[in-house]
Amino acid sequence: MSVTVALESPRQHGVIRLLELSDAYAQSLYPPESNHLVDLSTLEKPSVSFFVARNGEAIVGCCALVEAGDGTAEIKRMFVDPEARGLKVASKLMHALEALAVDRKLVAIQLETGIYQPEAIGLYRKYGYEEIEPFGSYLPDPLSLFMEKRLR
Questions:
Q1: What are 114's strand-pairing partners?
Q2: Which of 8, 33, 64, 136 could form a disulfide with 52 if both were Cys (CB 3.0 to 4.6 A apart)?
Q3: What is the pLDDT of residues 29-63, one digit of tens each?
Q4: Nearest 5°: phi and psi at 35?
Q5: Per-residue pLDDT tens digits for 99-127
Q6: Is the pLDDT of residue 1 over 80?
C-alpha cells in the first residue's frame, strides 16, 4: 500500500488516537509549561487545515497548518504513528502542507518543537526551516526551538 495525504476532519477515531499518543510522548519529554499542544476543538477552527496520512485505510499520521491571518501559518500536531515510521509519512505531510501554503500565497511557515526531538528537528531542517526567535504568543523557553521557512 502507498501512503496518501488528504485534508480531513480531525474528529475521527484514528486521529484522536494519534493525538493521544502525541500528548503522551510530549508529556514524557517536557514539563506542562513547555508543552504547547492544541486541542481537538482548536483543530476544527476555520483557520486550520488538518491533514491526515493514511496507509490504506489506516490513519498513520497527521498535522495541522494554522493560519495566523498575517500571511504566516504555524505547523501544529505533526505526529506519525511509531508503527508507521520508515514509510516517509512525515515527508508526505510536509509536502502537502507546504503546497497548500504556497497555494494560499503565505509568506512563511513557522513552528515550535522541543529540543529533545532530534527526528523532528532533522525533518524540519531537511525542508529548509531555520531557527528564529519566539513568534506569536510564545515566550522564550530553553526547551523549545522555534523555526521558520520563508516561502517568498
A1: 144
A2: 8
A3: 999 999 999 999 999 999 999 999 999 999 999 99
A4: -100, 120
A5: 999 999 999 999 999 999 999 999 999 99
A6: no
Tell me how far apart the alpha carbons of residues 44 and 55 are, in angstroms, rounded to a whole number. 23
- Give pLDDT, residue 109: 98
Q: Give dist(CA 26, CA 24) in Å, integer.
A: 6
Length of the chain: 152
Closest CA to 15 of 31, 39, 47: 39
CA dihedral over 118, 125, 149, 146, signed as positive or negative: positive
Task: Confirm if 14 and 58 have CB atoms less than 8 A apart.
Answer: yes
pLDDT band at 152 (very low <50, low <70, confident <90, very high): confident
Residue 105 burial (CB count, 10 A): 9
Provide the mean pLDDT of the chain.
96
- The cell numbers describing 92, all together, are 508526505
Question: What is the spatial distance between Cα 47 and Cα 45, in angstroms, rounded to a whole number?
Answer: 5
Place of cell 504568543: 137
- Amino acid letter at 103? D
CB 115 within 8 A of CB 143: yes
